[in-house]
């Protein structure tokens, strides 16, 4: 078995991130959408200690997560403003506090995929080891009380199949969307200990569209009835789908390919069986959005404590 | 022919934007990702005069476009900061100066689709008439000198077909990606008059991914060779494809469905036959990014002058 085969045979080893022979012969790698690069930034010095990466759609939420986690792990610096590491671009925002990196990814599969390609290369160039990555997001629930947090078991497509289709050179390649089941169980356990809000483990449907793609009746176009919508969501529910969002499938697929320990933790902002519009009060929606942060913040704190105890 | 049939028979009439009977019975419509709504904002008063909408990926670029267009159409207000109309959310940024609305859409089909659903509903609620919408963006060129501006003739998918596939209730619906050919010719004519940079009309390939989906060799994963890449791009070129980006297909499809006069104007930042990385100097890349703004700004100025002359 040569080195390349060995690498492929152990896709879950703790430092296998990239799988691209072309990168080895590049003099320089520009991570364009981060405004970072191997020739312009000392990536091992700046990112080599990263153990946890949290990603979410909104740049504001990822900044607020950084402030929250800094206090949780007692690394807050009252003098610090937590500067945006990607300040040279407005495509993504990135913050770091100790071993925790926080990155925004925008909305939808293409947007998070660009970010993940560059993040995975960043972790590779920085020689990071044993990295856990968690998406903290928002979603529409199916039959759950709004505010319930869902830890994803499997990410499914709009036909309720656990797969992600990647088009390469015009041909469709099907990728596995498995997530780390141990990590999901640990997160559920953590939520039970916290006992602040309900958390469940369930399947998550990942769609390419928020309106027609999620059977909403309130988009600019709609050619189906309330009954059609309810039937579709009922079938989704029968496939074990608890919530719907727009990034989990490619997130699961890319993390699996790069050997990252990955989980998806999304709060449900509404019950889609009862409506489509996100019209709740700003305060209530905001408090729901904090829940994945609180859960994942607590999980990271616990892990770091356990690690400190072992060393 | 009843009213509904009449509406469908004239899909290009100047004020048909939405096609969703459910909207008529909603007491209130919350445009969630804009932080606007029919119950909280007087949309006709604030947006009723909109005649041009320019959209682009980056919020910074759309703000800078607003400042540019304000000066071009002599509506600049030295006191004004052009406040972000969507300041209550960080999903999109929106600016308005006179009849020109400028909105960011993030990266990729799902992100621009969410924005377009809410924009089309906004134009509908505001009773706008005769609206022209233009996407100003960046792209990778095929066989063009970097900095060339491409006005899209047809938007094609990764198999070089002029279609957009929308999944509705788990089933794939194929939509037409035709753009307004007169508008494209007018924009080309406008660029010829300006004579500042080269502009061509050609097909644009729209992909769901920036790395593997566009045959790049510099992503986190790559399973093909430089030769495979060149062959794929050569085939694209033979199908009349001049550039590659990530939003034009759903943009064309949704604008066509809603009767908006639409064009896509993207500058090419590099020639993909010669490389993959966006490593040019910041100044050069920035000057290229201004070109679609300059062209579209000039076009709008010309249209407004012609209209003022007629009235």
TrEMBL record, chains A, B:
Family annotation (InterPro entries): Nucleoside_phosphorylase_CS, Nucleoside_phosphorylase_d, Nucleoside_phosphorylase_sf, Uridine_phosphorylase_euk
UniProt-annotated binding residues for substrate: 214, 216
Binding site for phosphate: 91, 135-138
Cited CDD domains: UP_hUPP-like
GO biological process, one term: uridine catabolic process
Top-level EC class as recorded in UniProt: transferase
A single GO molecular function term of this UniProt record: uridine phosphorylase activity
GO cellular component: cytosol
NCBIfam families the UniProt entry points to: euk_UDPppase (TIGR01719)
Function per UniProt: Catalyzes the reversible phosphorylytic cleavage of uridine to uracil and ribose-1-phosphate which can then be utilized as carbon and energy sources or in the rescue of pyrimidine bases for nucleotide synthesis. Shows broad substrate specificity and can also accept deoxyuridine and other analogous compounds.
Name listed for the protein in its UniProt record: Uridine phosphorylase
Organism: Eleginops maclovinus (Patagonian blennie)
Taxonomic path: Eukaryota, Metazoa, Chordata, Craniata, Vertebrata
């Amino acid at each position: 078995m040569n080195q390349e085969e060995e690498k492929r045979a152990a896709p879950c080893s703790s430092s296998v991130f990239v799988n691209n022979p072309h990168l080895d012969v590049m003099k320089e790698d520009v991570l364009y959408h981060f405004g970072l690069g191997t020739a312009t930034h000392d990536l091992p010095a700046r990112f080599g200690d990263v153990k946890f990466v949290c990603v979410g759609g909104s740049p504001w939420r990822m900044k607020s997560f950084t402030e929250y986690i800094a206090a949780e792990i007692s690394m807050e610096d009252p003098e610090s403003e937590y500067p945006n590491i990607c300040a040279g671009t407005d495509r993504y925002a990135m913050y770091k506090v100790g071993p925790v990196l926080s990155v925004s990814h925008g909305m939808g599969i293409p947007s998070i995929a660009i970010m993940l390609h560059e993040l995975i290369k960043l972790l590779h160039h920085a020689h990071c080891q044993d990295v856990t990555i968690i998406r903290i997001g928002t979603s529409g629930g199916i039959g759950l009380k709004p505010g319930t947090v869902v830890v994803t078991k499997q990410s499914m497509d709009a036909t309720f199949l656990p797969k992600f289709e990647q088009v390469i050179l015009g041909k469709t390649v099907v990728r596995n969307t498995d997530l780390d089941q141990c990590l999901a169980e640990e997160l559920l356990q953590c939520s039970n200990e916290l006992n602040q809000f309900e958390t469940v483990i369930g399947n998550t449907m990942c769609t390419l569209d928020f309106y027609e793609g999620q059977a909403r009746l309130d988009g600019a176009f709609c050619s189906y009835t309330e009954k059609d919508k309810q039937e579709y969501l009922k079938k989704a529910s029968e496939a074990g789908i608890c919530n719907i969002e727009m990034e989990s499938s490619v997130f699961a697929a890319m993390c699996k390919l790069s050997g990252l320990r990955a989980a998806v933790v999304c709060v449900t902002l509404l019950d889609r069986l009862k409506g489509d519009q996100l019209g709740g009060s700003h305060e209530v929606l905001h408090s729901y959005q904090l829940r994945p942060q609180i859960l994942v913040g607590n999980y990271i704190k616990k892990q770091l404590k356990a690690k400190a105890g072992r060393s």
